[in-house]
Amino acid sequence: MNKKNKILISACLLGNKVRFDGKDNLIDNDLIHRLNRQGRLVSVCPEIEGGLPIPRPPAEIQDKFPLRITGINGEDVTPQFLAGAERAIEIAERENCCCALLKSRSPSCGNLEVYDGNFTGTIKAGSGATADELMRNGLPVYNERQLDQFIEFIELLDSSEPELGLRAS
What is the torsional sign of CA 154, 160, 163, 167? Predict the structure, then answer.
């Protein structure tokens, strides 16, 4: 088995109720179910890993350089987000993850866009603390809105290892 066949995935995408509001973002997808049955998914919630509770006030990135993330209540939660990002890196390395499938728009997990810091639901280009760290460490990061690209990546990876193929159950 390839050393790098596991996938880091946001816990909320697997149905774990770890979001700031105590809810999940379950992806009901055959591929995700198959990968989970194969034991290839490594669940992580960087915000929980960083010490934040459930529920918690929503948080958004206020500044990127230096990074500053605050809750809607004004509390600076940057240290928890950075600690969670570091913990996610440790888990990905320990588990030999080949890539990550993370929650879009999250101040931790968003890989292409995040909320603009005003708590109005406005989106801007950017990435969250954990996605940034994973990408800086060379791990491809996808979000649930990029399932087609994610599937292509996994199929390419698995094409060299037929026993891991997505078509297998």
Answer: positive
